[in-house]
Amino acid sequence: MSAEFLWYIPNQVTPGHRGDTVVADHNSLDTLAEQANSLEELGWKGALIGTGWGRPDTVTVATALAARTETFEPLIAARPGYWRPAHFASALATLDHLSGGRVRINIVSGKDDLAAYGEAEEEQAARYGRTEEFIRLVRRLWTEENVTHHGPHYRVDDSTVLPRIAARADRPHPRFYFGGASAAAERVSAAVADVQLFWGEPLADVAERIERLRTLIATRGRELPPLEFGLRVTTVVRDTTEQAWADAEARVAEMAKGRGVDSSSRRPTAVGQQRLHDLAARGDVLDDNLYTAPGRVGGGGAGTTWLVGSAPEVARSLRKYQDLGITHFVLSDTPYLREIHRQGEQLLPLLR
Known about the structure:
The chain is α/β, with parallel strands linked by helices. Helix content is 40%, strand content 18%.
């Protein structure tokens, strides 16, 4: 199966994200555009742009980067609640039109500072119910005209989004990526997502989740093309195995020093993050080179587990995920610009 490889653009107000070394103008348009242009030149498909209250607006950043590139595809993280469906459908349809069909979307349902933008925090079932309704309604607004919808969370009357999404050979509209490991999240993916994103779990765990999702689809009345699968993971690539592990272990030691204590007793609230947190109890290194120690000292999200090694070793590990059915990869390491080049030159050619 062919695969697509994307990177990650930090989109942070505060410098030093995950150890990035750029401080001056770290989130200026020139700095972010240099990353996007480097990704484009080296053959990456695009990059995930993170979201959350207190960070630069993701759609605005993606629009600016699309204007400074030619083929770069932003994977735009967005939260229902922050966006109303019709407003979101219009904004993304406009960007898709202006960029020539380069928009991808990562819907995020995790908790955020909802009160800061006028929303109320909801229990998990209501939160994922809202997410499913959001995706269904946005997809209708992109593919139908004069849409009327009265649901538990949203309503529109006689709504037609302009400009219309231009259907392309490989996609009728921008793809919806979606994560989450809870049963509620998996029900959303099975019904309405285009791509289910996993974090860096061991191969057997990912295989189990893929099988469970494929079984779940049959119960959800899915009317879409088959669900695709993706992996979001940190990749620590160096010229040699020894250098990669030395750098990874030194970074974990520095993280531990910054925390002051082992953080293994601090259990995350999100199911997916808890799954990664619990991996450390099974060993510091799982499979061939999945490093779990960062999760014990404060790593979170894609920083919880790392694939560590030389370019051939990391490529071999990624191909094993591909053999399970993973076709979308979102990789990263810091310093971001240096690693865009290193992994674009050493890792990507081995994966094509």
